[in-house]
Design brief:
homodimer; 208 residues
């Protein structure tokens, strides 16, 4: 029999794991917002702990050192970008459509907390081992974008002469929004992303 | 009579000022390269001094604190961008041509040492007072770009529906090159800048 027949004040393993995940999540959200607003180097784990009304050792308990907290924030941002690539790659239709969908989603993620951290906090901030892991994950995103651009060029749905530089230009145009866009700005992140993508795509539409 | 008729081992005021400027310049070049390569926070003035075979107090003597060294690096980068805006604004012809010239030069500066620092080192690194000065200088560049885009839209040499987002997208596409481009890469910075500008401009050329 898995659970006692009568109510108990003790949580079972699943409940404990869920509570742990919720607490890790709260710490990461508080940390990433401070990193984005004040900069990683000027934020201490004491500040993060104070904003949550907890102690720094509790952050160590749930997540580890400040470097590990940052790496986890960056990993979440990169995970969302990778997810965006997987979703776009599964769509039917011409390559240009998949590229558009990926770029829009890329822009949205990059203006959200964890995505913003990927752009705002340079990887020089990471310890060497975390930096190598971060760069490997980031390379996957760069390669995914390069593939979308290449496919749109190959199937003729876009007119692109330099796949590499087009990819860099597009990712830069979108990533820059993580620097200037304010979460409380007049336009929603999704609207900004859509408009920037329209500006970029117009330059590679086949000219009839 | 301004100068002694016979050779003298003592330098006059002009020579002393020139020597001082040359030394400040050498310190700034060494510092900016380290900031760009390792990151500002992980570089100490001791590292910069060691790379020049001098002592840290000599850096204080010529330039002041680490914050002041960074501010001076950033100011040089921004000066070059402002110079680019002044030069482009003085050119004849349609607005699109001035925009192209400015964007190309912007890309070149941003891939050079001091310009790269403007992009790589976020302004969170600066002390509050230097940060306010940096942001005021940076705003001038943003406004200059906005004007070039607006003028190209107004005189019909470009087809632009959203001046603000087009400006942000273009500056982002070029600024990103300060992150990925390597000074020893296969293509020269000027060639990369020219190609990215071609990609961007194609999207705003009036469609006939």
């Amino acid at each position: 029999m898995d659970r006692p027949a009568t109510p108990t004040p003790f949580r079972n393993a699943t409940e404990r794991e869920q509570e742990r995940a919720t607490k890790r999540d709260a710490v990461l959200r508080a940390a990433v917002r401070m990193f984005n607003q004040r900069g990683y180097h000027t934020t201490s784990l004491d500040d993060v702990a104070a904003s949550l009304g907890i102690s720094k050792p509790l952050i160590y308990h749930y997540l580890g050192t400040k470097d590990q907290v940052l790496f986890e924030c960056l990993r979440r941002g990169l995970d969302r970008l990778r997810q965006a690539a997987v979703e776009a790659a599964g769509l039917p239709g011409p390559g240009l459509e998949r590229l558009k969908v990926f770029l829009r989603r890329y822009g949205e993620v990059i203006m959200d907390d964890f995505g913003r951290c990927v752009i705002r906090t340079g990887d020089e901030a990471l310890a060497p081992e975390s930096r190598a892991r971060f760069r490997a994950l980031k390379r996957e995103i760069d390669q995914a974008l390069r593939r979308f651009v290449q496919e749109a060029a190959d199937d003729g749905s876009a007119s692109i002469s330099d796949v590499k530089l087009t990819s860099f230009a597009f990712v830069g145009a979108l990533s820059w929004s993580a620097r200037w866009q304010e979460p409380e700005g007049a336009l929603a992140a999704s609207e900004i992303a859509a408009r920037i993508v329209d500006i970029l795509i117009r330059g590679i539409e086949p000219q009839v």
